[in-house]
């Protein structure tokens, strides 16, 4: 059993760090959501901010957009050119995706400074891309409302998850390319010496 743990030490370390940080960050975020709701019909501050910033992006792209707090559910109504195109709910603010991103980076952490810089840069990028994702989705729903289902459930979630995947790949590639090369060179030397 001890040998099994030693053999898979790096895998177990990754799983413990990933799950541990994911659970801790999710609990903190859940606590924030619980504390931020004045009543059951009020969106949290971050969701409201994302809705307002997405509206600002739409306005900067030449569309007349506005967001209005929904009075019956914790969401923000998004209107483009006077047409209701959707609701921005807590799940649209990208915080859960940022938590997933951060947990993976922590699980593959490098030096504290390098990890912290990558987490901050990645979280800002994900947040920013999410704003544009919502704006472009709103434009698509305004112009092509018949494609609402595929746009909302496939295309636009695919964009944000693809970004997170690319960031993960970049992070892993920046961590150990030298070790892999050195290990491969050492193995080749050992094979030649035999």
TrEMBL record:
Bilayer-spanning residue ranges: 12-32, 88-109, 116-144, 150-171
GO cellular component, one term: plasma membrane
Compartment list: Cell membrane
UniProt KW keywords: Cell membrane, Hydrolase, Membrane, Protease, Transmembrane, Transmembrane helix
Membrane topology label: Multi-pass membrane protein
GO molecular function annotations of the record: peptidase activity
Coiled coil stretches, renumbered: none
GO BP, sorted A to Z: proteolysis
Identification of the protein by name: Exosortase family protein XrtF
Organism field: Halomarinibacterium sedimenti
């Amino acid at each position: 059993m001890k040998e099994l743990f030693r053999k898979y030490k790096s895998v177990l370390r990754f799983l413990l760090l990933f799950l541990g940080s994911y659970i801790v960050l999710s609990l903190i975020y859940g606590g924030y959501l619980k504390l931020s709701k004045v009543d059951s019909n009020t969106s949290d501050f971050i969701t409201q901010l994302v809705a307002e910033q997405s509206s600002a992006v739409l306005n900067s792209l030449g569309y007349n957009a506005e967001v209005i707090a929904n009075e019956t559910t914790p969401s923000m109504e998004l209107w483009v050119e006077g047409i209701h195109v959707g609701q921005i709910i807590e799940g649209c603010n990208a915080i859960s995706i940022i938590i997933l991103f951060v947990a993976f980076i922590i699980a593959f952490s490098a030096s504290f400074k390098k990890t912290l810089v990558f987490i901050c840069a990645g979280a800002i990028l994900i947040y920013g891309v999410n704003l544009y994702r919502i704006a472009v989705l709103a434009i698509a729903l305004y112009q092509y409302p018949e494609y609402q289902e595929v746009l909302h459930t496939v295309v636009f979630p695919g964009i944000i998850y693809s970004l997170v995947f690319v960031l993960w790949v970049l992070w892993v590639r920046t961590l150990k390319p030298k070790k892999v090369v050195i290990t491969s060179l050492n193995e080749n030397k050992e094979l030649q010496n035999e």
